[in-house]
Amino acid sequence: MNTDDIRFKIAASRRILYREGCDSNVGGHVSARAQGEDAFWSTGFEYFDQTTPERVAKLNFSLEVLEGELSFSPALNFHARIYELRPDVNAIVHLHSHYLSVLSSVEGRTIGMYNVGAVLFHDDQSTYFDDGHKAHVSVADALGANRLCIMKNHGGIIASQTIESAAIEALMAEQAAR
Fold first, then answer.
1. Which end of the chain has fewer CB atoms < 10 Å from its terminal CB, N or C?
2. Chain segment 43-73, per-residue pLDDT in tens
3. Could you give the maximum distance between any two Cα atoms of the chain, in Å?
4. DSSP secondary structure, 51-80, as one string
């Protein structure tokens, strides 16, 4: 498979996140917009280190699988909603990494500007408390125009321009939360 193939990049991103300690063993997703379509590529419900390019599928914004096979979590709803609302976003990482999850346990708390990595998120982060009602709409609204949304007791969402940027920013969010 070509290393420029988005399926390869998604699988590689998940494995990098795993190796850097950003896998919680309970899920999370990495997705990328399907250019020129109302669709996106994503992974199913599996550990980050299990992902191979063949396990990445394309879904439309109604979560119908267009290509590949995918057993997915309803959490992919907010990926679709963010892509619908934010044409500037081409990749999303949703993770439950340790330090980001610990930080998320303090309602309303964002990453402080305590180290150089944190500046990536200066004035570019929000928080979300799950109200249980149409969460995919609410979390997308809470993200707004920001790059990072910290989800109370859950982890974070990083919305970025490329899959490479989203993976790096997810790693930096974890380090800054630490």
1. N
2. 877 888 888 999 999 999 999 999 998 777 7
3. 43
4. --GGGEEEEETT--EEES-----TTHHHHH
What's the mean pLDDT when you consider all of the chain? 89
Taking the C-alpha atoms of residue 170 and residue 158, their distance in angstroms, rounded to an integer, is 6
How does strand 148-151 pair with strand 125-128? parallel
Indicate if the pLDDT at residue 114 is higher than 90: no
175: helix, strand or coil: helix
Helix (H, G, I), strand (E, B) or coil at 117: helix
For position 16, what pLDDT does the model report?
93
**33-to-83, 147, 159 alpha-carbon distances in Å:** 7, 16, 11
- Quick one: which of 71, 128, 93 has its CA closest to 14? 93
Instruction: Report residue 68: phi and psi, to 5°.
Output: 90, -175
Question: Which pair of structure tokens corresponds to residue 2?
Answer: 């070509």
- pTM exceeds 0.70, yes or no: yes
Element (H, E) at 95: strand 91-95
Tell me how far the alpha carbon of residue 76 is from its chain's centroid.
Answer: 9
Shortest CA distance to 126 belongs to which of 113, 106, 111?
A: 111
Q: Which band of pLDDT confidence, cut at 50, 70 and 90, is reported for residue 135?
A: low
